[in-house]
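During the no-cost extension, the postdoctoral fellow (Dr. R.K.) reprocessed legacy sequence entries with the updated structure-token encoder. One reprocessed record is reproduced below for audit purposes.
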Amino acid sequence: MASRARIGVVTDYHVGTLERHGGDEPHVFLNARYVRAVEAAGGRPWLLPPPSGDPAGAEEYLAGVDGLLLTGCGRHLDPEAYGETPRFDLTLMPQAKQALELALVNGALAQGVPLLALCGGMQSLNVALGGSLIQRIAAEVPHALEHMQQDKATNPAHPVTLVPGSILARLTEAETLQVNSSHTQSVGRLGRDLVVSATAPDGVVEAIEYTGPVWAVGVQWHPEYLYPADPAQARLFQTLVAQSKARVPARR
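Re-encoded structure tokens follow.
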């Protein structure tokens, strides 16, 4: 049997109070939908927890995978990562996770590892390449939509318009998509070698893609909740696996 493409899936990481352990205890976790989406697309999920205090962790992870999936999370990148100070009360992600995500993006693009970045992962993709973020959409985008939906994530919240000829438009074979929405921040200044491939009706950037030689796409929504009801969303994972499959012999 041919080997499946090994897709590195970045886990979440949190230091929270676990009373039964007597206090604060770091823990690693991941929504199983990411795993199922990769498996349904024909890939082999390979979970990547943030390696606390290990600067070589990203390099070692990339040596063992064929593709990379940056998952979203409910916490924010430190604005210092894009040269700003916090303008709002932000809930920052642990430094171990932030450091891993930014290092993985730069390492993946340098080593030719295909990359799909979802929600907060898309923001990490942009910041890793020198871009910035809108720190609070509701306060900084005139006439902004409600981007933190109260409905179930399996239900779309608003449409996005795809840029004709973009990677996203070609792989979904669509001009618009109906997407869910669970973010309070968005892409501000674009990082180097990135272009916008989809926007919301209020102008908020909903997808970006890399113009260099590596397949790298970021979307601001969570497609793992929208397939199989919307086959176009499944094509994001299918394309990631297909792009990664070509690297399997090189890794072996």
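The CA atoms of residues 190 and 228 lie 31 Å apart. The longest helix spans residues 95-111. The remaining legacy entries will be reprocessed before the final report is submitted.
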